[in-house]
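re: that chain from earlier
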Amino acid sequence: MRYKSYATESYYLDTYEGILIPEDEIEKALKQASRHVDSLTYNRIVGRGFLNLTEFQQEIIREVICRQAEFEYENADEISSVLSSYSINGVSAQFGSLWNVFTGKGIAMKRDDYTLLCQTGLCCQLAR
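^ sequence. v structure.
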């Protein structure tokens, strides 16, 4: 069975009203973001089945996937970089240790998006 994103292209465009990702890249971006959400939720969505989650959980997951897809699209170069920090002519930047970026399981995500995802109850390492 082919892996499908939890948020569809039509959801991204019509409900979320996303405009950042070019139409020919939306499906790929949503699929990658869904895989990252699966990792951060310890594959609990796959295990339970997306349609078996509450409407509240489904809606949060769809929204987080759209946000994550945009975040990954906007920051693709920084995310794929092996550098955690750099400095050029006195200007420096760090990635991964910023107060507003969560990194876990090799995935970078805006901290407030991760906090939103945690509201589903699927991110706790101890949960079953």
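The CA atoms of residues 16 and 63 lie 7 Å apart.
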